[in-house]
Amino acid sequence: MAEPVYDMMAPVLARWAMGAAAAPVATAWQPVLGQDPAVAELRLLALGGQFLDAMVEAAVPASLKAFPPIPQVALPPVPEALAPTIRRVLGQLKEVRALGLVHLLARRGYSLNPADWMPTPQDDVPALYAPWQDWAAAIAAGQETLPMAPDAPLSAENWHDFGPATRLAAFVRLRHSDPAGARALFENRRRHLTADERLGLLDVLGADAGPDDVPLLRDIASTDRARKLKELATLLLARQETGTCDGAMAEELTGFFAIEPVGAAGGQQVIKAMPLKTQAQKNARWRLLYQVPVLDFAAALNLAPTDLPRLWPWNVDERLDMDFISMAARSGPDAMLPGLLQAVLVNGPPYRRDYDALAERLPVAARAQLARAPLAAEGRLAFFSALGLLAGGGELDDVVNTPAFRAVLAARTAEDGLSASNLATELLALGLIATPRAARQAMAALEQAGYLAADSRLDMLRLNIALEKTGAQE
């Protein structure tokens, strides 16, 4: 009978767990265990293992759930030879900086292993990871199945066949291939969507909004129930047309400035900032620069918005310069951005947090141009500034011949008083923003400065170079 054996196994397993002999309590098998204590333990181990394997079935915990399979993504995983370096770098990166590695790998034609990294549904990652984001969202919601996104353009008919992330990625593709169709689809579906879903789709529309989108933007700005939707629609309208703010506010703002002629002949003009006498005046000017759109401000000054960067009184008041850059980044029309970028590079401070909003509106090449500014004027922390400005959208070729890189080399000297670990994050950021050519140059310079080739702080630079050698980059 099996019952006596079942009753016996509990105290046997308990004794083994405590490191004690169990043969004396194995009453059901005493006749076959023998008198030698050592032999008895071995026989009990063999009999117990066979019994448990044949007669005992492990019960599945009620809390155990079977997850749906992780979907495949469009790019192959990183070669296995590079996996240890990838894991070390991921362990050193924190939060948003890890996304820099994700974007770098995607640009080189690779994806990460889901065992090493999995995006959250909220992460701003390359579109290839949208299936993983939907998988993560399904797991969080307790779903046991995950529908496969159809291999067809997004439409009203197949809308619900996509998960949230794959639907947004499909909407981006539709907006690029058929702008009017994407706008019509958004109008068709928006009253059935949550505020967050509407906001994500409107953000896609706003990336290249034009005159044809104005009626929809006006409707959202006036009728949508969500405050963030109304604010974004109003902001996008401000880039398209004047009259989006109270005219009295624009007139009040122009009272802080004057248009004056310059030069002997007086044929050129500049904008002059009027002197401020009180903190209340400074607060009022700051508030109006935040609230009044660029087009309304330019109209009140009888100027074209593209004239503003050229005529602005740069370097008179740094805070005023940053307020103007922030204002232009939020509400300036697209035609104004090239002139603004050039004016910032020539006249603006090397880097401030306000530049991030400007970078978000620039194409990749222009973003890289802006990211070079802090490297030319700041110390070691400039690599973080450049990484933030690139925002996963580009790489820099000439980083070695910059003050920022020379500051990293100088930090190796004893006079600097820094421990070696203090440079680890700077070198990580350097590896994330450098092209393979720049990474090779940096490695050579760092080794010449005394770094060992196997130094773990150079992992990101080595990985950058190795990814190029695979020949799989886009």
Describe this structure in words.
It is built from 24 helices and 2 strands. The protein has helices at 3-17, 30-33, 37-55, 83-92, 96-107, 130-140, 164-177, 179-189, 195-206, 214-223, 227-238, 247-254, 279-291, 294-300, 308-311, 318-331, 337-347, 355-360, 364-377, 382-390, 403-410, 424-433, 436-448, 459-469, and strands at 257-262, 268-273. Strands 1-2 form a two-stranded antiparallel sheet. Helix 7 (164-177) packs across helix 8, helix 12 crosses helix 13 and helix 23 (436-448) crosses helix 24. The model is unreliable at 414-418 and 470-474 (pLDDT under 50).
Termini separation comes to 68 Å
What fraction of residues sit in β-strands?
under 5%
Query: How would you sum up the global shape?
Result: elongated
Number of helices: 24
Which regions are unreliable across 5 or more consecutive residues at pLDDT < 50? 414-418, 470-474
- SSE order, as H and E? HHHHHHHHHHHHEEHHHHHHHHHHHH
Instruction: Give the C-alpha Rg.
Output: 32 Å
Spatial strand arrangement across the major sheet: 1-2
Q: Overall pLDDT, averaged?
A: 88
Percent helix: 40-55%
Number of strands: 2
Largest sheet: 2 strands, antiparallel
What structural class should be given to the helix and strand makeup? mainly alpha
Q: Characteristics of this structure?
A:
two-stranded antiparallel sheet; about 475 residues; mainly alpha; 24 helices; disordered C terminus; single chain
